[in-house]
Amino acid sequence: MRRMKHRRKQLRIDEGKVLSWLQAHPGVHDAGDIGRGIGIRRHERRVFLALLVNLADRGLVERLKGDRYRLVPRRRLSGVLALRPEGYGFLRVDGEEDISVFLPARELGEVMDGDRLTVVAWRDSRGRWEGRLERILERARSEVVGVFHPGRRDHLVVPLGREALPPVVVPRGATSQAQPGQVVVAAIRHYPERGRPARGEIVRVLGDADDPRVEVTATAIRFGLPYEFSRPALAEAETIAERVSEADLAGRRDLRSLPFVTIDGLSAKDFDDAVQCERVDDGFLLRVAIADVAHYVRPGSPLDREARERGTSVYFPGSCIPMLPERLSNGICSLNPDADRLVLLAELDFDREGQRRNVRFSSAVIRSVARLTYTEVQAHLDGRKRERPGCDQLDDMAALARLLQRRRQEFGSLDLDLPEADIVLDLRGRPEAILRRERLFSHRIIEEFMLAANQAIASFLERQGEAFPYRIHEPPAIDRLMELQHYLAHFGLGFNIDQEGPKPSDFSDLLQQVEDDAVLSLVVNQALLRAMKQARYSADNLGHFGLGMSHYCHFTSPIRRYPDLLVHRALRRALALDRSPAPAALAELCEQASHLERRAMEAERDVLQLKKCQYMARHIGADHAGVVAMVRPFGLFVELDDIFVEGLVHVSRMEDDVYYFDEDLQRLVGYNRRRIFQIGDRVRVRVDRVDVEGRRIDFVLLDGE
C-alpha cells in the first residue's frame, strides 16, 4: 500500500516548477542542479529525469551534452485563436503571418474560437511553435447564432458554422418562444469556466433554418457583416439622380458613339467595367471604362462611411450584400446597356506583340451598346457568331488578350488552377445541382484587360506622387520554400532558389511542367497555394509576386470594393478633377480593407459550404468516385467526380489500420500494412453523414479502397 501511495506521489512532479526554476536561473544546468533547486528527493529522481526528457522532446527545454539543460527561448505572443473541433487550436499571431502557435486542448477549456489571447510560446524539437495560455485579452463574440434544440430541463443553442463553438445552454424562460429547429441569436451571459459550459438567453428569433433569407441574415450576424444600410446613407442615395444630367457632362469626353460592351456572368447586376477594342497602327487600342463612383460618393459622406465600414460587396448563391445601396450599385453607377454613364477611362495602346506603347487616363461619358455574358462571347469566339451590337470587336479582343496572357507568362506571372463551384438553385433558393465552374477564354479576356488597366494606373499614380492603396503580394518565406522543395522532390519535381530570392518564373515553369498531368497538377497547385502568402492592400509598394508585377492596384471594381474607390479618388486628384485631400490614415485604411476582404471571403465560403451540405444531405448512403484533394493529420479530404463537393474521411473511420500523418510528404501512412494515402489518389467513398449546422460532409472509404 505504501508503494502505491509513494508511486502516485512521484507522478505529481510539477513541470511548472522545473520551468519556473530554469526561468529564474538563466544558463545551462545539469539535471542534479535542477533537481536540488526544486527539492527532488532520491526516490523521485527517476521520474524527474523522465520529466526532463519529456520536456526536451516537447521543445520546452533544450538538452545538451552531459545531461545538461537550459530553457528554450520563449516569446510572449498575441493573436486570434482558431479552434479545431478536436479541441486543440492555433493562434494566428498579430503581424507575423508565418507564425502559427499550436495550443493543446488542455489549455483551451475556457476560451472560444476567435478570442484574442496572449500566450507564452516556444519552438518544439521540430521547430514548430507551441504555447500555453497566459490570458484572454478579448472575447470574439458576445452572441452566437445557432439552431434551437429544446431539452427537458435546459435548452441548447447549437452554433452554426465550422468555428468549433460549443453549445450555449439556455435556461427555461429565456427562449423568446423559439420553436425547435429555428435559427436564433443567443446572448452569452456566462462564458465557459472551470468545466462549465457557456450560458445565455435567446434575444432574437431569425426564422426557419431552410429559409434562404434567414441563411443570409444569420451569416451576416455571425461574421459581423453590415446588412442593413443606415438611414443617412439611404437618404443620401435618394438625393442622387437616376439619370446623368447635362451638368454632369462638363469637362468630360463624350464617347457615347463608341461600341462599349459589358461582359459578365449571367446573374451579374452591378456592372463596374465596360470595354472597347480596335486595331490601330500595327497594334491595338483598348479602352477600359470604369464606373465613376467617386463622382457620387464623396469622402466623409454617409455613403462613404457606409462603404468604408463594409469594405466590399459580399456575394452568395442567389443573393448579395452590396457595398453601396442598390440605387447606386445597380442603378446610376452600373454601366447598364443603352444608358448614359459617367466613367473614368483608361486608354491603352499596344503594339502587335502586346507591349504597351502608351496610356491615357481621362473622365468621360459612355453608353454601353450591349450587356454580354461570358457564355455568349465564348460562343461567338467558337464560331457561332452573334449579330448583336459590339460583337464585331470580340475577335480583336481575343487576339489582344492572348498577347497579354503570353507576355505575362513570359514574365513569370502565376496562374494557379483553383476551380470554383457553381450552385444551381431552384425557385425557392435551394440547391438542385453543384457543378464545377467552367473556365472559358471569354473569362480570360476580361481578366487580362482588367490586369492591364490595374497595372497601368498603379504606375501612373506613383509617377504622379499620389497616395493610394497598392495591391501587394509578398514573396513566400524561405522556410516555406525549403519545405516545398522537399515535398515536391518526392514526386520528381523541383525548382531552384536563387540567392537573391525566389522569382515568379521559378513556379510558373513548374506549373507548365505538370499542366497535362491531372494528378501532378493538383499536387503542385495545392503545394504552391500552401507556400504562398496572402495578397493584401498596402500604402507602400512591395510589388505583386504572384502576378510578377512591380506596380499593381485595384481600380476596376469601385462599385463593390472600397480600395478601388480610393484609387479612383487618387486618379481624380491626379487629373485635377477633384480637390479633396488624400486620406490621412491610408495605412490604417489598407489594413482595414484587407481584414474586411478576408471577412467577406470567409462568409462567402461558409454559405457555399452550407449549400453543398444541404444538397448532400439528400444523398446520404450514395457511393461516388473521387480524388484525394488534401491530407491532414485527422483524415483525407476527397473531391467527388460527379458532384463538385469535398468531404472528410476521418482517420478514425479508416479501420483497416492505424494511420499516422507524414507531415513532410503530406500523406497518411498505415503502421502495419504501410498503405499510403496522398493527394491525387483515386478512391471510392460513401456519403456517411452530413452536419448542415456544422457545415461538414463525412465520407467513408468503401471496402477495398
From TrEMBL:
NCBIfam families: 3_prime_RNase, RNase_R
Superkingdom of the source species: Bacteria
EC number(s) per entry: 3.1.13.1
Catalytic activity: Exonucleolytic cleavage in the 3'- to 5'-direction to yield nucleoside 5'-phosphates
Source organism per UniProt: Geothermobacter ehrlichii
Keyword RNA-binding: yes
Every S1 motif domain range: 621-702
Family that this chain belongs to: Belongs to the RNR ribonuclease family. RNase R subfamily.
Name the UniProt record assigns to this protein: Ribonuclease R
Keyword Hydrolase attributed: yes
Family annotation (SMART domains): RNB, S1
GO molecular function, one term: RNA binding
Its biological purpose: 3'-5' exoribonuclease that releases 5'-nucleoside monophosphates and is involved in maturation of structured RNAs.
Localization annotation: Cytoplasm
A Gene Ontology term for the protein's cellular component: cytosol
Coiled coil: 586-613
Keywords of this entry: Coiled coil, Cytoplasm, Exonuclease, Hydrolase, Nuclease, RNA-binding
CDD domains: S1_RNase_R
GO biological process annotation, one example: mRNA catabolic process
